[in-house]
Request: fold
Amino acid sequence: MDSLFCSDSTRQLGEEVIGSATDYQTYILVECPLPWVSNAFNSKWVPNNLQVLVEEVKQAKLPIKFLLIANDLTHKVEHTTLLIYEKQTGLSFGYIKHEFRLPHIEQVALFVKKWLWGKTPIYEIEPSVSRDILICTHGSHDKCCARYGNPFYFYATDTIANLNLENVRVWRSSHFGGHRFAPTAIDLPQGRYYGRLDEDSFQAILTRTGDVQRLKEVYRGWGILHPALQVLERDLMLNQGWNWFNYKVEGKILEQSLDNNTILGELTFATQSDSLYTYQAKLIKDNNKTVKVKGSCNATQSSVFVKYAVADLCLVSENVLTFSK
Reply:
C-alpha cells in the first residue's frame, strides 16, 4: 500500500476535492527552465538572490506564494516572464494581474523587492493573454504530479490550440498543494483551483459551457475564500450555473466554534445586472466526509482533512446597486 500513488488512494477513498484551495494575497510566478528539484527554488537555474528572497518571505509568514512556471518556449526565449497576481479587496472577481518581461532571471529578486516596497516597476507589458492556467507537473516533489500532471499539461496545450483560445495560456508549475488530487490546476486571474481533471471537465472549464454539475467532482474551491466558505461558494455556483463566473463575490466568517466544527459564514455576490445578494449558512464539520489519509506520496503518516457541509442556508438581503454620478 505504501507504494500506491496518493491520488489513487484518495480516489478509492472517495475524498471530496472541495475546500482544498489555498488563500494567498499574492502569487509571484517566475518563468524558469526545467528540470526542477523537489524544493523548486533550489533548482539549477534559480539564482541565489531569489532563493534568499523566497526564504525570507517564508520566514516572515507573508501571504505570498512563489511558484516556478515554464512552457514549451521557456528554453528558447531570451527573456524571463514574471507574473504577479494581487488579490482584490471587497467584492471581486479574484486577482489583478501584472506581467513583466525581464531580460534575465537574475533580475527577478531585486525587481520583486522593489515591487513589494511599492515602487513603480519598469518592464511591465500590456498582456495579450487574459487567463493563465497553471498545471502542477512537479514530479520531483510528488510522483503523482509526474504521472498525472505531465500528460495533462500536454493535453491542455493541445486543447487550447485546437479551440483557438488565443487569450488562454497554459504553464507547467511547481507545487501549489493538493497533489493527492492530481492532475491539479489553478485558473488565474480568478484564482480557482481544480483537481482530478479529465478531458470533459477541462473543456467545460475553458469554455464555461456544458453541464456545470460536472464541476462538483473537480472543483477544489476559490482561493480568495476561507476553505469552509469554499463549500458554500461551490453550492451557490452549482445553483447559479456558468453565469456565476461573471459575478463579483466576497466572503466572511461571522462566527466559529472553538473547535472549528461549526462556522457561520456569509457570502455576498453582485450579478452582472448589479443586483446584490447576501447569503448566510452554517458550515458544519461533516464526519462522514472528513478523511484521514496521506496528503502526499512521500508522507510518512496520515493527516485528517476536515470537510464541511452547508446547513441552514438563507438569503439575508437583496439589493440593487446604485452608483452616484
In short: The chain has six helices and 16 strands. The first strand starts at residue 26 and ends at 31. The longest helix spans residues 143-162. Residues 6-217 form a domain with the Glutaredoxin fold (CATH 3.40.30.10).
